[in-house]
Amino acid sequence: MSSLPKRIIRETERLISDPVPGITATPHEENLRYFDVLLDGPSGSPYENGVFKLELFLPDDYPMAPPMVRFLTKIYHPNIDRLGRICLDVLKNNWSPALQIRTILLSIQALLSSPNPDDPLANEVADEWKNNHDKAIQTAREWTAQYAK
Amino acid sequence: MSKIPRNFKLLEELEKGEKGLGPDSCSYGLSNPDDITMSNWNATILGPPNSNHENRIYSLKIHIGNNYPLEPPTIKFISKINLPCVDNSNGNIIPSKFKTLQNWNYNYSIEILLLDLRKLMADPANKKLPQPNENEVYNV
Questions:
Q1: What ipTM does this complex have?
Q2: Which residue positions are annotated as catalytic (chain A) (predicted)?
Q3: Which of A85, A95, A92, A108 is nearest to A23 (CA)?
Q4: CATH number for the domain including A103?
Q5: CB contact under 8 A, A84 and B36
């Protein structure tokens, strides 16, 4: 395996020594650019008390290119699709090399608190979110209880 | 070069397949759009022109194991076809008779497999092989 850039080493060390509350990111031993992530559902959201598993990969051109991230735990959210793909501006056009793994994971946690049904990735979920809000929140709670343990 | 993990490589392949960014002569996507492991795929190959496959559309199934892309997928024809690398009892592609599987490389993809199969269908040695009736499928 090619040597790991200093920036990635520093970020990884800090994730472990000074973890973000509610988020753990652990690199795979055989691929230090590939992380297992556990993310607590934010309190006050329908994802509260859930623990969500994600995977994150730092491509060769990181930090010029954003990390690749997706949910492995099923989640009912208008900006996350059935395969766990996430629609979030900082993972695409608004990525900046000044951002880091921890800021990206915090942005994803914030997305759970404030879904954006006007820029949906999962259209059926977004329609439900806008037109039948109470039921959507209830479904999100049920999925959290069922899958995010 | 660092190696892209299985799931992120498959997401890239899927995006290309879903958006139709690949060649017109083949298509591919998940068998079950909810399958978070992305293990089972459906594919089609459009028969190459100037061969007995012309104007036919062949369906295939592909299984992606946990060690992809270190290990190649397994791939089989659903539509009946007469081709030396295909087991004509069940449609399975025999890796020892298909170079792309035999010499599998980490950088290959589902699309490369499909395009290389199509090249074999158009190969002078194979293109005039008698073919089963169109729309016949393997019973497995």
A1: 0.91
A2: 87 (glycyl thioester intermediate)
A3: A108
A4: 3.10.110.10
A5: yes
